[in-house]
Amino acid sequence: MTTYTPEIRARLEQYLATHTLPKGMGSEESACSIAAINLAISGKMTDDIPDCMSEVIGKATITLQDSMPDEMRNSARYKAWLPTAVGTGREREQERLKILMEWMWGTVLPHLQAFADEKGFGKEWRTMCSERTQEAAYAAARVADAAADAAADAAACAARVAARVARVAADAAVAAAVAAARAADAADYAAARVADAAAGAAFWEKIDPIGVLERMTKLEDKQ
Question: The whole model's pTM is what?
Answer without folding.
Answer: 0.83
